[in-house]
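RECORD TYPE: protein structure
NAME: Aminopeptidase P family protein
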Amino acid sequence: MGEFRDSLKKLIAWLKEERIDLAYVADPTSIAYLTGYASWTEERVMALLVSREEAALLFAPAINEGELRFFAWPGAVAFYQDGESPWKKIKEAIAAWPAQTWALEGGSLSLAWYRALQAEFPGSEMEADITDFLKKARLRKSPEEVAKLQAAGAQADLAIEIGIAALRSGISEGELAAEIQYQLRAEPSFPTIVQIGENAANVSALPGEGRLAPGDMVIFDLGTMKNGYASDVSRTVGYGEVSAEQRQIYETVRQAQQAAADGARPGMTAGEVDELARRVIREAGYGQYFPHRLGHGIGMQVHEAPGIQPGSDTVLEAGMCFSIEPGIYVPGVAGVRIEDCGVLTEKGFEPFTHFSKELQILPIKK
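PREDICTED:
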């Protein structure tokens, strides 16, 4: 067992503690977290099976066999061909394992696949769920994970620079998003969001046909994947001269974001951190225009636990990584969002992105 990742050792320890024979892990991100192997098999079955007797099996389509030859995996592997029943092949592969009690990753296993698995093991109990265990295991990031998140954050800063440099009168939201992706040449962690003018007052909208004109506020919300870890950042800029109220809204959001970033500490609840920013916006008279949570966790996926939201009693710990992204969205006036993801340390919140948060007013370009 010494060759397995620490994350996989913890899962085996959990199985022993819960007296469960084996775990069936179905989500590709969970498999990558536990093994280091990342692959996307579309409609084909891929799974990690883990025994409390300190054994593990990567089960994959036969088309992955060549790829897995180059992957240093200390456990067993098994494959199935197109046209074969993956469930029968799984049964053959773990025939020597105790398999009376199972823990499944319920949120990642369809009802049809659950029934097919159950049909091959009709006497087994499959009631336990490992989803919460895996979610909690990923809450605190290791120094190696934090370094990967920092590298992804540097890419996101560059993407904001590219987007701002591309601003010119008449360019559409879709064209701006495409320009960012083309110049950045990096895998996005989610579809790039660019919101111009009236559309910026919508909380979250994919790029459309809105075109840039003087006096518009522009929201960039984007991220990249690097070494299996995500980044996510938002900045808002003005194009040409903007109104006094637009400036006031921007400054309120900036102060709210700073209040939460400066005040977050281990031992606080996620709800308390949310309130640090929400209070600033509420006292400025814009409380009704901040309709979403303050933030979300980040790691191998762009949205993970913990949620930084009103009423959450999740106690924050050093090593947790999350976003701080307050926003104000006033129809007919402006939409502003400022976001950084970062890691919570004993000293406070340390962001992964560092692009300036002072209001930038870009000159008009034809």
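COMMENT: Residues 5 and 36 are 8 Å apart (CA to CA).
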